[in-house]
């Protein structure tokens, strides 16, 4: 295969994956309206989150094509600053409470995205000194999570940094992306098992101590609603009205603090499938990205860490988080400009350059 032919084929694959993403996001929007039809529901939060992902992805594509290192660095700094200044409330929350519970988890999610963007910039940088500075920025983002009191956020951000360092020596991205998808699936499966009280007693007690009793009860309410309304769910943003635990919790935001369980309760099995498809699409887009394997796996690790936080928290109820996820995916999947250099890149699947 000649280099020009390979570049054309990469662009064709990119167009196909972009079209698939548009279909999936449109399906998510349509299904939220279908599940809301005929009921007193509020699908605006879902629609706003989808719009934020799409807008962030588009902006990331543009910035990643024109100024890949500078754009990723700007995203990292912006996410870090927003997380630090929003410790008492995150702007853009889609929950209805005046002071939204879960803002610490949302700030931790922004710090994970900051670490991922900084590591992506480091992987794309051409010289050693900028790479070192950008990785220090990623480490600083991880340490900032400790100042917010989020040990989970610190562990997730450090994990992204370590994955970025390991990805430098990785040639085959498919196995890495499959492993990330498996991790996200296992996290979702464990959360459902906790909600169904299907784990061994000792493990269940240990996890309940980490998650808190209130969150486990919210998850069980969500699982019960999903069993009672398996297809359509109860409707977007109705969990708080129907969950006895949410109603009895002081200052509740009406969320179960788990993205897959919220989808199951409010939009049924179809909603869960669409959520999984959206995450799978992001990983697929990264796998087919013309950027280097180091950039791709770093972004994939950050999005997987974000997915893990969303499984046990309320991060996706905050517009800056969903927009940041789209931005990171767009940056890491941006195409090279026409006639631009792709020196050192590895095509999708880890095959040698054309």
Mean pLDDT: 88
Largest sheet: none
Percent of residues in beta strands? under 5%
Poorly predicted regions = 1-8, 94-101, 341-354
Estimated radius of gyration: 20 Å
Q: What structural class do you assign from the helix and strand content?
A: mainly alpha
Bin the helical content: over 70%
Quickly count the helices.
Answer: 14
Describe this structure in words.
- By secondary structure, this protein is mainly alpha-helical.
- The protein has 14 helices and no strands.
- α7 (173-195) packs parallel to α13.
- The model is unreliable at 1-8, 94-101 and 341-354 (pLDDT under 50).
Please describe the structure with a list of short key phrases separated by commas or semicolons.
single chain; 354 residues; mainly alpha; 14 helices; 72% helix; 0% strand; disordered N terminus; disordered C terminus
Task: Please render the helix and strand layout as text.
Blueprint: H1 3-36, H2 44-66, H3 68-85, H4 103-124, H5 128-147, H6 151-167, H7 173-195, H8 201-211, H9 213-228, H10 239-242, H11 244-248, H12 259-287, H13 293-311, H14 319-332
Helix pairs in contact: 1-2, 1-12, 2-3, 2-14, 3-4, 3-5, 3-14, 4-5, 4-6, 4-13, 4-14, 5-6, 6-13, 7-9, 7-12, 7-13, 9-12, 12-13, 13-14
């Amino acid at each position: 295969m000649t280099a020009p032919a390979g570049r054309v084929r990469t662009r064709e694959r990119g167009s196909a994956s972009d079209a698939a993403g548009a279909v999936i996001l449109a399906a998510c929007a349509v299904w939220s309206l279908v599940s809301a039809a005929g009921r007193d529901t509020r699908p605006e939060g879902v629609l706003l989150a989808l719009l934020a992902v799409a807008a962030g992805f588009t902006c990331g594509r543009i910035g990643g094509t024109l100024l890949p290192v500078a754009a990723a660095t700007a995203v990292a700094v912006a996410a870090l600053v927003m997380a630090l200044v929003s410790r008492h409330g995150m702007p853009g929350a889609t929950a209805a409470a005046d002071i939204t519970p879960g803002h610490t988890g949302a700030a931790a999610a922004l710090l994970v995205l900051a670490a991922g963007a900084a590591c992506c910039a480091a992987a794309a940088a051409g010289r050693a000194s900028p790479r070192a500075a950008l990785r220090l920025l990623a480490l600083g983002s991880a340490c900032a999570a400790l100042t917010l009191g989020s040990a989970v956020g610190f562990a997730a951000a450090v994990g992204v940094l370590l994955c970025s360092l390991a990805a430098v020596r990785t040639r085959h991205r498919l196995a890495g992306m499959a492993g990330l998808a498996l991790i996200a699936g296992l996290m979702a499966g464990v959360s459902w098992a906790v909600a169904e009280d299907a784990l061994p007693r000792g493990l269940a007690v240990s996890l309940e101590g980490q998650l808190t009793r209130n969150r486990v009860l919210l998850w069980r309410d969500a699982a019960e609603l999903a069993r009672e309304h398996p297809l359509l769910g109860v409707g977007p943003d109705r969990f708080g009205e129907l969950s006895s635990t949410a109603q009895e919790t002081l200052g509740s935001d009406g969320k179960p603090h788990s993205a897959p369980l919220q989808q199951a309760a409010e939009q049924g099995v179809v909603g869960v499938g669409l959520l999984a498809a959206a995450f799978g699409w992001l990983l697929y887009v990264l796998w087919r990205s013309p950027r280097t394997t180091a950039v791709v796996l770093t972004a994939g690790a950050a999005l997987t860490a974000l997915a893990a936080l969303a499984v046990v928290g309320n991060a996706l109820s905050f517009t800056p988080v969903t927009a940041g996820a789209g931005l990171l995916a767009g940056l890491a999947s941006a195409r090279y400009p026409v006639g631009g250099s792709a020196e050192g890149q590895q095509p999708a699947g880890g095959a040698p350059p054309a």
